[in-house]
Specification:
With about 375 residues, this protein is α+β, with helices and mostly antiparallel strands. It folds into 2 domains: about 150 residues, Cytidine Deaminase, domain 2, CATH 3.40.140; about 180 residues, no CATH class. It is about 45% helix and about 10% strand. It contains 16 helices and 6 strands. Strands 1, 2, 3, 4, 5 and 6 form a 6-stranded mixed β-sheet that branches. Strand 5 and strand 6 form a beta hairpin.
Amino acid sequence: MTSTVVSVTSSASFLALVPRLLECTPSESLVLVPFAESRSLGAMRVDLPTAARPASVESIASTVIGMACKIARTDAVALVVYTDDALADVPALPHRPLVDAAIARADICGLRVVDALVVGTDGWDSYLSPSASDPHPLDEITSSPAAEPRSSLDEDQFAAAQLPPIDPALSRRVLSALRKVERVLGGAHERRPLPVLTRAAAAHPAAAAIADPPVLLEDALATAPSELDIAQIAAVAFCLARPALRDVALMQWASDLATGDATLHAQTAYHRGTPFPEGLARPMWGEGAHPDPDRLRRALELCRFVAAALPRERRPGALSACAWLAWATGRSSHAALYAETAIEIDADHGLSAIVLDIIEAGHLPEWVFERPTSPAGTGSSRECPVR
């Protein structure tokens, strides 16, 4: 975890810090920053309710305060609403019922409320001590020493979920290689965890790589996506399109090569009628030991690259892996976007539907709450004002 230590002396400088904790400038969001004494423990973000996606303010309040209570040592919270409304144009600060519900829930849970702020298109204000006239100007935030240059932050909470641009020529070569692999090993409908490698298949580089999936997946993780060769990209795409091999990839990337081997053997035995070991499956539901955050992020970048290199109709497997990995790192907004895109392509895609159900239930992995870090992987800030 990278520590971010910044002295914050005012509400404006605190607002300058929040995008750094999230690694983006959020929009239409409620952000909660948990504190242990005077040290922030990262930040969490949820969507604001809208007419298109209405939600109970009590439900949202219970969810965000409940997440804060799961973080060890939390004794206070700050709330920030980011809205596309102009504050000077409305008779009352927007989304006050939601903020009031969150404050009430925090009080029930014994959490002090550091501050409750709102940032609009024309300024910022406080729900606890609102301005008597116009909102405070936004340049009080942008001029703060705690402010991060906008060029170093994602534009909003969804920008980082966009797939990377890929050279069309590379995509054509990947698709050609993938089709050759499928001709010799079988398509995604095949249920065997490990395809049968014939002599003809062994002569094809991508098919030969799939002979030992854990080694393939570990080598791909250790290589920058842009440096992977066509055979590697096609082989990883082949694995991510097959649920059994995709699950081997996810459990291995959440742990290590030995776990990948064990998962592959368990998948093969399961296909023959042996129950799947519960301990190996626990990380899929967000339980168990804390994965290496850097390893998960590298796996996510790999899967994003593979998805981008494929034609849209072939992306659901890679996108579902992106969805799970984003969820595993606490990025539920990104996870939902990947899963929804996969469902748009394949309405019956299993893992994508499961990830959406998990997100809808407000569930995050246990390890997200185990140590003081934001879902973005950033650290804490010292000397934030606690009132």
